[in-house]
Amino acid sequence: MKKQHVNKERAPVYEMMQEMKDKAYSSFHVPGHKKGQAYTESGGAGFLQDVLQADLTEITGTDDLHHPEGVIREAQALAADCFGAEESFFLVGGSTSGNIALILTVCSKPGDLLIVQRNVHKSVIHGLMLAGAKAVFIQPEPDPVSGLAVAPSAETVNAALAAYPQAKGVLVTMPNYYGMGSDLAPLAEACHQHGVPLLVDEAHGAHYGQHPRLPGSALASGADGVVQSTHKMLAALTMGAMLHVQGPRIDRGLLRQRLAMVQSSSPSYPIMGSLDLARRLLHVQGAGAFTAGLTAVDALVRGLAELPRFKLLHPQGQQPQDAAGAASAGSTAQAAIRPPTAAYTAQDPFKVVIYDDTGVLSGYELQERLEAYGCVPEMSDDRYVVLVYSLGSTEEDTRHLLDALRHITVEKADAQRSADASPAAESRHSVQAEAEAEGDLRQTRASSPPKSQGSPAEFSTWNILAQATVSEPIPFGLQPIPAEDTERVPLQDCADRTAAEMIIPYPPGIPLLYPGERITEDTAARLRVLSNAGAKCQGAADPNLLTIIVYKKNRKQGSHL
């Protein structure tokens, strides 16, 4: 396809919105707030007033997301050029809508089979349900040092495709929530050798491939369909995302139809305008857009060198500042110092993952201490705290963070004991005590992230693993499970039963259980740990997670998936 010349300095949707905002006209169309006028007599809409004035709908001159012919079409073409796609689509429902649309496109008939990495976002499971598809779950490879799962190996993908040649495609997540990744090119090769597309949930990697220090993008690795949350690691408004496609393996016409089904017929123009602006910022500034953010990260790395209590997660054999670009296309220097089949070869420098090397503070406790000093992390688990930097981060942010870590480092022992005696800490300690009683859920800390002892780190809700390297086909659907086929049981009695509800720890939104999945002893133990910790779990009928709904033992289990 011949590439057309584009004017990357244009932001067609944003520019149109600015013109409409400045135009003097009377609105006889929705939305009902009429450019914010509805709030005039009550004192105005405050900081939302400017947003309301730019809040549009499909009228003459504004184009239509579901049949783009003007500014939206031009903006999407500019996005494709920026991100290296053949075609790009704006998403106003986040990566969720993109994942669902891709699955509905590839699995176009009920019963179609998709090979899926087990620890995928809940939107992928929902896509399987909506499609009436069957899933063959494959095991992601764990990093033996951190114990965190990354992505399936090419060997696993090949084995799954050989076992199930009727599969319509393969779906994986890269990078993971911690910014960890590996080379996707072998997975793309395996898929293409079997004539199927590789679909990638790259929600946390919209910035990939845009700077030499960043890992290569999924598109550059050969993926056919890629979903990115532009709002996560670039500069769009929340819910702003993009879906990128290339190659002949995805039916573009059907994809457009599916997108129109799962996205609102009244898409948010502020979100679309922000996608346009975020793309222009990157398109015009190129790698320079990340200079300030990377400078802030480098300042943190230098500062942590003076705070030996806190360490950074990075691939084995690499230094933190070298870890990012190692898996980018053409990088061979680092390949010589790591096994060719390593699960974890690249770290997003903007996902700064820290831990207390002394083992005194868990990840949960370290997050609590940081928040007390005004630093709000993205998430934590029992060991790690995930700190998200971006092109919008500054060295002042890093100074604030380092100051907080210095305070935490020098806290007096009696103050620490007082904090440990708090109700929240007591709850966590009871969680840790139960985990230790459960066996391998707690691991010894050492001067680097300890190697997992036969199993991945159980306290990361990212580590939701398949029960076999390649599972049997699992049918999904929308038919409700009859209440008479289920019962509610206490968590201590749920092992070896079959789940009849979805349990989704959030964040990161990876289903620990889906309806029809057998509850193993390890999973039952993790449920009790989450319950004792007061973890937020979506999908659970019991908000306190003291009980779980399972199939009755005398019922056919899984038939209503």
UniProtKB/TrEMBL annotation:
Coiled-coil region(s): none
Signal peptide: none
Top-rank taxon, per record: Bacteria
Chain segments carrying region Disordered: 414-457
Keywords from the named record: Decarboxylase, Lyase, Pyridoxal phosphate
All residue ranges annotated as the Orn/Lys/Arg decarboxylase C-terminal domain in the record: 483-531
Lyase is among the record's keywords: yes
InterPro entries: Orn/Lys/Arg_deCO2ase_major_dom, Orn_Lys_Arg_decarboxylase-I, Prn/Lys/Arg_de-COase_C, Prn/Lys/Arg_de-COase_C_sf, PyrdxlP-dep_Trfase, PyrdxlP-dep_Trfase_major
Regions of compositional bias (Polar residues) in chain numbering: 444-457
Domain (Orn/Lys/Arg decarboxylases family 1 pyridoxal-P attachment site): residue spans on this chain: 12-396
Cofactor: pyridoxal 5'-phosphate
SUPFAM superfamilies per record: Ornithine decarboxylase C-terminal domain (SSF55904), PLP-dependent transferases (SSF53383)
Annotated family: Belongs to the Orn/Lys/Arg decarboxylase class-I family.
Protein name per its UniProtKB record: Arginine/lysine/ornithine decarboxylase
Organism, scientific name: Paenibacillus favisporus
